[in-house]
Amino acid sequence: MERYDRAITIFSPDGHLFQVEYAQEAVKKGSTAVGVRGRNCVVIGVEKKSIPTLQDDRTIRKIHSIDEHVMLAFAGLSADARVLVDRARIECQSYKLTLEDPVTVGYIARFIANTKQRFTQSPGRRPFGISMLIGGFDFDGTPRLFKTEPSGAYYEYSANSTGRGEKPVREYLEEHYNDETTADEASVLKLVVKALSQVVQSGAQNIEIAVMKLSTEPVILDYRILPTEEVEELIKVVDAERMETEAEETAKKASGLK
């Protein structure tokens, strides 16, 4: 009997590669990550889990810059992500040295996806247990956002999520993503915080956010990870808006009963 539940290169009778599906389960146990593409910016936010008091939080970042114009976040196994991040950075440098142009976001997303796919087709290996959100700008100033899966599949999105809270966060984004909520950096930041708040306990210590935006013309990019104080202020603004909305809805219901 073929042990298709253990061998990466053997399909089950009903067409499944179980090791790939097990890798997808590892993603579902990972921290929630969300990415949103705005009109002139890309924002990525991730859930930060509590860490031991003596641990340096800089060693467990879920958001990484892989070139001046590309960043990514991941859900799943951190060690697997480290390997792919290193490979992606080397590919970005090699591409620029060879062609004297920076990679497009689509190119590096495809490179990461191809690397993942090769690990689903070779004996003696296992799939990468991570899903990535890859965001950035092409050389013409166009914002892009991609998502890659453990299977090697990749797709472009306006907004998406991954990790343990993928479903409720994605449903929130599908309902609230529009021209108004993505008009500028401040609006996109609020949308990301509101989406993460569907599954993450409110508090700056539980959220990490990175922003990449066009700063001037010609194309110059500004990439930064928001400091804790700025995230805290953003959460206060979002909470105040939510309380105001709830108060208005309560007032409408009360007036309707009269």
UniProtKB/TrEMBL annotation:
Keywords: Cytoplasm, Nucleus, Proteasome. It is found in: Cytoplasm; Nucleus. SMART domains: Proteasome_A_N (SM00948). The keyword Membrane does not apply. Pfam families: Proteasome, Proteasome_A_N. Residues 4-26 form the Proteasome alpha-type subunits domain. InterPro entries: Ntn_hydrolases_N, Proteasome_alpha, Proteasome_alpha-type, Proteasome_asu_N, Proteasome_sua/b. Its main location: cytoplasm. GO terms for biological process: ubiquitin-dependent protein catabolic process. GO terms for cellular component: cytoplasm; nucleus; proteasome core complex, alpha-subunit complex. CDD domains: proteasome_alpha_type_7. The 20S proteasome core is composed of 28 subunits that are arranged in four stacked rings, resulting in a barrel-shaped structure. The two end rings are each formed by seven alpha subunits, and the two central rings are each formed by seven beta subunits. The 26S proteasome consists of a 20S proteasome core and two 19S regulatory subunits. The 20S proteasome core is composed of 28 subunits that are arranged in four stacked rings, resulting in a barrel-shaped structure. The two end rings are each formed by seven alpha subunits, and the two central rings are each formed by seven beta subunits. The catalytic chamber with the active sites is on the inside of the barrel. Belongs to the peptidase T1A family. The proteasome is a multicatalytic proteinase complex which is characterized by its ability to cleave peptides with Arg, Phe, Tyr, Leu, and Glu adjacent to the leaving group at neutral or slightly basic pH. The proteasome has an ATP-dependent proteolytic activity. This is Proteasome subunit alpha type. It comes from Elaeophora elaphi.
